[in-house]
Every structure is written in C-alpha cells, then in structure tokens.
C-alpha cells in the first residue's frame, strides 16, 4: 500500500555542550499510523520529539512536518500538532470543562466540552478539578486536550506509565479510536507489550542512534530468524491475563 509521509527527520543531531544526545538520526512517520519511539532512558527520544514539536532547538539536520519545514514554518507546525502537557500545566482551580474552554480559547477553536469528555469516559468529571482525578483519568484528560486544536498528529510521551492494567487497556482503546478518526499518533513507551499492541511501526533508539525500525511483527520475526529462543517455555497466558481475569476489565476509577 502506498503510504503518505507526514513527518520526515533527516540527519538530526542534537548536542548539549560537548555531549551529542542525538547522532544524526533519520526516519519517516506515515500519515495515520501509530509510530513508537522505544529505547532506554537517556537514548534521546524526548530530545527528538521535542525538536519535532518545535519546543527545542536542533543542532543540525532537517525536519518537515506535513510539508512544513521546521526552520521556516514552526508556527504552521504548531497549529497541526497536539502535545500532552505535564500535569503542572493545568490550572489547579479550574474544572475540566473550564480547562477545555481555556484551551479552546487559546487555540481559537470552538469545542463541545461535554462531547469531548464523553469520548474519554470523563462525562461524570466535568465539574472536577484536574488534581482530583485518578492517574488514569488524568492521562485520559491530557490526551483529550491534545485533540482540542484538531491536530493532524498527536505526540504522547509514556501515556500509560503508572496505570493499573484496566486503565492501561482502556487507554490503548482510546488511542486506537483517535487514530481511527484520522489522527497520526507518535508515542513513547517503556512497555513493549504496549508497543506491540499499538504500534504499526517502531524505531528502537539507543545512545542517540536508531538501531532498528520496522513493524513489531517484523522485528520479532527477524530476531527469531537469527536463532533467538526464549529461555522459558511460553505459556498460553501471562500474569496480566490472570489479573484481568480475576479483577475484570472494567475501569475502576470512574
Ligand atoms: P530519553 O527521552 O530517551 O530518556 P533524552 O532525550 O531525555 O532521552 O536525553 C538524552 C540525553 O541527553 C541524556 O543523556 C540526557 O541526560 C541528555 N540531556 C537531555 N536534556 C538535556 C539538557 N537540557 N542539557 C544537557 N543534557 C541533556
């Protein structure tokens, strides 16, 4: 199938003083895919994403997002992307409806807050403040807010860290729904099961370089073709299956 490229990163380098955190990486993200950036802490994932998001200066290299050159049209890029805020970005005394109205005003985009909250199973929390939400609800809300400016691409940085298995699976479904509605998703995660479930393709980054890039399926097949075998016999279920079987799949933090 012919794929349309929405992000191009070419020979991207980022130096912090003498230290080179990103060492000339190149990759493309296709329109409407879920693309994962995986790698150990310190590999250069956040640096790379923040450069694409126009939040950090690059040292050299070339980035285009939906045809806009990062050097020439960063404001055009800002308008078509959605980035998750850190929790500190949410005014503590505003409730979720008020926060959505605030963002909607900033972006100059009218939004039906009730509708948006319902999409993310937060309709009961319309009058709650961000700090009163559970971890899963906070993550759902922060993903909901990335959609307010109707972006073509959203960037999710470790969206399920710290969540219970039910909340994690619920978030996976929501991310798939966002993609099904036409948005491209770029995600970082330390959970390989999550990457395997969600990502169409993922890049594995190590010490500032991309050391593999493919679909999870192909990456696994290549490893197996090289003679890799798991030490332990694979069982038909894992402990997470046990947990979900015993405690159910419904969300607990409503
Ligand atoms: P990751 O997101 O993969 O954990 P980062 O992009 O955050 O990696 O960091 C890559 C490397 O760059 C790390 O060694 C980190 O310590 C370093 N680094 C990140 N930000 C800065 C900064 N502002 N100044 C100096 N070094 C930094």
UniProtKB/TrEMBL annotation:
Hydrolase found in the keyword field: no
Stretches assigned to the ABC transporter domain: 7-232
Keywords: ATP-binding, Cell membrane, Membrane, Nodulation, Nucleotide-binding, Translocase, Transport
Chief place of localization: membrane
Key word DNA-binding present: no
Any single GO CC term annotated in Swiss-Prot or TrEMBL for this entry: plasma membrane
Location of the protein in the cell: Cell membrane
Gene Ontology molecular function terms on file: ATP binding; ATP hydrolysis activity
SUPFAM superfamilies: P-loop containing nucleoside triphosphate hydrolases (SSF52540)
Descriptive protein name: ABC-2 type transport system ATP-binding protein
Species of the source: Chitinophaga japonensis (Flexibacter japonensis)
Phylogenetic lineage: Bacteria, Pseudomonadati, Bacteroidota, Chitinophagia, Chitinophagales
């Amino acid at each position: 199938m012919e794929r349309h490229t929405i992000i191009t990163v070419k020979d991207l380098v980022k130096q912090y003083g003498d230290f080179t955190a990103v060492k000339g990486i190149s990759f493309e993200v296709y329109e409407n895919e879920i693309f994962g950036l995986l790698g150990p802490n310190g590999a250069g994932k956040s640096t790379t994403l923040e450069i694409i998001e126009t939040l950090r200066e690059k040292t050299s290299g070339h980035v285009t997002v939906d045809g806009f050159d990062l050097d020439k049209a960063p404001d055009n890029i800002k308008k078509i992307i959605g980035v998750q805020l850190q929790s500190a970005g949410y005014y503590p005394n505003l409730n979720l409806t008020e926060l959505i109205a605030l963002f909607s005003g900033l972006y100059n985009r009218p939004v039906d807050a009730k509708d948006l909250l319902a999409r993310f199973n937060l309709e009961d929390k319309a009058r709650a403040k961000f700090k009163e939400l559970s971890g899963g609800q906070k993550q759902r809300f922060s993903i909901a807010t990335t959609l307010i400016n109707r972006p073509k691409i959203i960037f999710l940085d470790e969206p399920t860290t710290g969540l219970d298995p039910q909340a994690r699976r619920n978030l996976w479904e929501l991310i798939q729904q966002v993609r099904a509605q036409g948005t491209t998703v770029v995600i970082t995660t330390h959970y390989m099961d999550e990457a395997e479930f969600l990502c169409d393709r993922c890049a594995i980054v190590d010490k500032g370089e991309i050391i593999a890039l493919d679909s999870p399926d192909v990456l696994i097949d290549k490893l197996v073709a090289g003679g890799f075998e798991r030490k332990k016999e694979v069982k038909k279920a894992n402990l997470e299956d046990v947990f979900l079987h015993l405690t159910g799949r419904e969300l607990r933090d409503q």
